[in-house]
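Propose amino acids for all 418 sites.
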């Protein structure tokens, strides 16, 4: 699309909206949005009835004509309390009925019913959303999954004299974090976007709001490569915000947890991957699925670019990776770091990202602990630099004859070093 035709902000919005519709999204209008519930009620109910009619009838038998309003109110309350991520990932219970608010691809296998449910996920885009009951302020765009808002977007067109900095300013100065839609965890991320650059944050807190770049990089530096006949930020709606990508981000990347601070206090944290983190992990996983184990890769990360998160995401996704014949590629993943402080950081990061008990074991005592973990085929093994052997001793142990023979034959070791 020639840039001359998409100069103004509203035209920029329209171009993005059409790009999303071309990717399978559905257009909705502001009148469909319930400001009190922070939901698109019609899309929520339609999804539930289409995918879980038996559970809906069970709930309807309990509440009769009030079932719709009671369900939506309870759902809105659960999102406010637990956060949108946990509600989308986990079961939602209401008066003896159990509901899923989203369906994700399993790590292995995809039978006909799972494929149907996965395809039933509803993606909708809404422009100029009036989100407040106190005023008529509007967001340029909100993206929904099954009627639940997941991303907000403020757009600025450079051809109209504004940049991404103006969008960031708008979030900081003109978007009250006390509004329900802007509470921490209510949405997965908030994007500030112009024709050339994109930034995002998971936490709005007025002038203190901190935005991270969400760009592809250009010539080894910041920014995005220019495009002749499209916006440089088109990767957002043509890649990152595609249906499969959004579900994968929610299922395998996003995190919402309580983090212990240095002073001992616990603070809630919501994480959404930056572009380079998502790109690194997905590139390695895709290549490993095609080429199998035994390959070597070097990922260069600059200081402060989120190396620990990238390593944790990669380890987790490799731990459940299956090949085209539906066989697990790795029996166990070993994460090795060469500095004590980074070891503790990685152990904490992996622990925050993992929700299933027994998946991770920290090796922080002796080589026997590593040997026992390997023979027990613990899925993820964190190897500490604080233990009494170095990298070569770890590798030697992994392939030594002191290990059970079946473990030696089956074990694939991924060494991720910082």
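Proposal:
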């Amino acid at each position: 699309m020639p840039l001359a035709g998409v100069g103004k902000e509203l035209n920029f919005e329209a171009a993005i909206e059409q790009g999303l519709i071309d990717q399978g999204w559905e257009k909705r209008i502001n009148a469909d949005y319930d400001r009190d519930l922070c939901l698109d009620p019609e899309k929520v109910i339609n999804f539930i009835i289409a995918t879980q009619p038996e559970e809906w009838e069970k709930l309807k038998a309990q509440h009769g004509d009030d079932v719709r309003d009671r369900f939506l109110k309870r759902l809105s309350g659960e999102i406010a309390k637990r956060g949108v991520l946990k509600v989308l990932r986990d079961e939602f219970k209401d008066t003896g009925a159990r509901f899923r608010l989203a369906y994700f691809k399993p790590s292995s296998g995809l039978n006909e019913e799972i494929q149907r449910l996965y395809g039933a996920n509803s993606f909708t885009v809404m422009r100029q959303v009036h989100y407040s009951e106190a005023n008529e302020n509007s967001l340029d765009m909100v993206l929904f999954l099954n009627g639940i808002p997941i991303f907000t977007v403020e757009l600025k067109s450079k051809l109209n004299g504004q940049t991404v900095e103006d969008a960031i300013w708008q979030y900081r100065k003109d978007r009250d974090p006390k509004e329900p839609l802007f509470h921490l965890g209510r949405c997965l991320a908030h994007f500030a976007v112009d024709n050339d650059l994109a930034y995002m944050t998971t936490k709005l807190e007025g002038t203190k709001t901190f935005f991270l770049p969400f760009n592809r990089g250009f010539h080894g530096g910041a920014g995005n490569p220019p495009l002749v006949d499209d916006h440089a930020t088109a990767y957002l709606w043509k890649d990152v915000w595609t249906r499969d990508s959004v579900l994968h981000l929610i299922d395998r990347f996003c995190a919402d947890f309580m983090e212990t601070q240095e002073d001992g206090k616990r603070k809630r944290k919501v994480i959404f991957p930056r572009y380079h983190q998502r790109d690194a992990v997905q590139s390695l996983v895709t290549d490993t699925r095609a080429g199998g184990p035994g390959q070597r890769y070097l990922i260069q990360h600059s200081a402060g670019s989120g190396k620990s998160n990238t390593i944790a995401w990669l380890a987790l996704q490799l731990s459940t990776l299956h090949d085209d014949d539906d066989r697990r590629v790795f029996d166990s993943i070993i994460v090795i770091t060469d500095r004590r402080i980074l070891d503790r950081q990685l152990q904490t990061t992996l622990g925050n990202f993992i929700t299933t008990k027994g998946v991770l074991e920290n090796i922080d005592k002796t080589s026997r602990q590593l040997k026992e973990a390997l023979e027990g085929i613990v899925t993820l093994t964190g190897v500490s630099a604080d233990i009494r052997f170095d990298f070569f001793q770890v590798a030697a142990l992994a392939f030594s004859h002191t290990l059970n023979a079946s473990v030696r034959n089956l074990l694939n070791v991924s060494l991720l070093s910082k």
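Residues 1-7, 383-403, 405-418 have pLDDT under 50 and may be disordered. The first strand starts at residue 26 and ends at 28.
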